[in-house]
Design goal:
About 30% of the residues lie in helices and about 15% in strands. The chain contains 26 helices and 26 strands. The strands form 7 sheets. Strands 5-4-17-16-15-6-7 form a 7-stranded mixed beta sheet, with helices on one face. A 6-stranded mixed beta barrel has the order 21-25-22-24-23-26.
Amino acid sequence: MSGSETESTHFHTCPLCEACCNLEIKTRGREVVSVRGDADDPFSNGFICPKGAAIGALDADPDRLRTPLIKRDGRHVEATWDEAFAEIDKHLPRIANEHGRDAVAAYLGNPSAHHVGHGLYGRVLLKALSTHNLFSASTVDQMPKQVSAGLMFGGSLSIPIPDVDHTDHLWILGGNPIVSNGSLMTAPDMKGRLRKIRERGGRIVVFDPRRTRTAEAADEHHFIRPGRDALFLLGVINTLLTEERAAPGRLADMCNGLDRIGHLVRDFTPEAVADACGIASEEIRRLARELSSAKSAAVYARIGTCTQEFGTTTSWLVDVLNVLTGNLDRKGGALFTKAAVGATNPHGKASKGRGMRLGRFKSRVRGLPEACGELPVACLSEEIETPGEGQIRALITVCGNPVLSTPNGARLKKALSSLEFMVSVDIYLNETTRHADVVLPGLSPLEQPHYPLAFTQLAVRNFARFTPAIFDVPDGQMPEWRILLRLAAIVGGQGPNGDVDGLDDFVFEQVLQKAVTSPDSPIFERDPDDIRRQVSRYRGPERLLDIQIRNGAYGDAFGTKPGGLTLATLAASEHAIDLGPLEPRLPVALRTASGKIELAPEPFVADLARVRARLAADPGEDGMVLVGRRDLRSNNSWMHNIPSLVSGRARCTLHVHPEDASRLGLSDGSSARVSSRVGVVEAPVEITDAVMRGVVSLPHGWGHSDTGSRLGVARANAGVCSNDLTDENEVDAHSGNAVLNGIPIQVQAV
């Protein structure tokens, strides 16, 4: 490094979790010298967590891939981009031609949602593949919320967001937002936001089988049996209706099915559900009364309620409760965002849509229905293993590590080794990508621009922020959006050297034509050449972003709305542009076929019989179940190769209640053998009363013991994989989401 290099200051959105904090990053040449929170950003207000502080270490990680790899004689060797794409062209088209389009599958991992290039061009690759065998991380953490929102409100991202900055009463079920920094609720500094609720006289109540950091910051915490949240919510709804405390107000005229709810919950009295959910009947009644009496209130449920057998039904009941208390779509309640890009019905000119259809096709082996165009990842292994028409013979993974993050990872690992061909787009050779025949490396987060495309649609306050790349794309590397288009060109028959720029132009033209031919568009019937001229300074994601921002809810409509947003405006700002608090958006935000809130969708109504069967379920004295947990320094499996994020005390431990530990002969720091139908792991014991009796907890995303990966730091801090215990045969009935919580297990001292 030259001593003459001067220090520069940059601002960049952190893409390492959903909070989307803005970072102030100082560099000297190609080196990151400091990272801190951006104090002038109106959305994140200077907040930073350990993951954001480590972004420079991620950028400099020597294990991060920078050159394509091709597997030769069982070993990955470096190759040129042309060699890598030629290898892909040799196999993928042949497999699709010989065995049909469904013989090639795709899996999209969690990080792909955090990068604008993937968000805008991933769909191009998927459309080119034209396969039913599409899988993603959505069916291991959030699909129940998407399905519930789709059937109730008409869009899979029409998820009501708690107005945490104004609410007087907040319920949190199965969520730990202080640690996750939100989660389908984009909200930096949740600890500070929750503290302010209490400072203004509000109340926070947490329901969780663990006393999490969020529970410790709340006014009340109630242990609740894993997988029984739906029964508790039904008891609350029953109380509201039998005590005539329901007050939907203006929402009543917007609902279909409101008159059915009383009959549906008739059997679920607090007395009937108390033993099954673990919360006393008198407490259920008190909690219901306090919720209904609050000036404003919001009920929020997250990953613990999604990754269970009643995930979608529980998500539905959350919003039934928000409706019955009159807190849906009002200040301090649960509202719909109005994002600059991707907003549902941003111009408010209609209140009807197509709604959501489920089960348009099914998986080949088990017959599991699709949701939001994808199949449950829990059936990926069997679709690879089972011979016959439509068998998966080739796989493309994008930014994913399903061997660690999906159920029964041991089975999936074996299945991946049997594939004819596999391609991975990833910055690491991890436990999944080590099986790939070709690995195409992505860029460092600091080498690419960032716009939080998905998360601005889920934020607790409307904002927009675009941050350019800090570092240039290094020689010999390639932006992911170009990788995805080049893969699409191969799949589309253009060969290994397809015209990426021409394909990019084609994608842009589709967006442009839709904008100028849609009567609801602000640029309806505008001259396309004028629009092309105004965005001509950009290519790739920036060009697509510019047209969508300018044609969006806050855009300048290409000159007809002076002062409106453009990409140039956002890029010049350095910090987020505040677009104001969440505001009521009903009924125009609805996209159901009826134009109303569907309060009693038939799939959920029918599922109550299955829920009712759990009223009598008794785990017995020795019945133990497994739940997961989150850590502020982790994000699933992909932040464990950074020394600062895995240093200190061991975090991959088995949490056990003192009474269970005594009964099972376990001592603090000893090892326990945990077994389920699908596997066995051994983990160090941590005895704590922060987990309820009958429940043990392992964190998600660990298990980096695979010697075939190139993750030196992670392998030295391997931990064990909780998904070696989760059962791929257990899924949520409506969404196909994997059941990762409430897993029946046996625990023994080693």
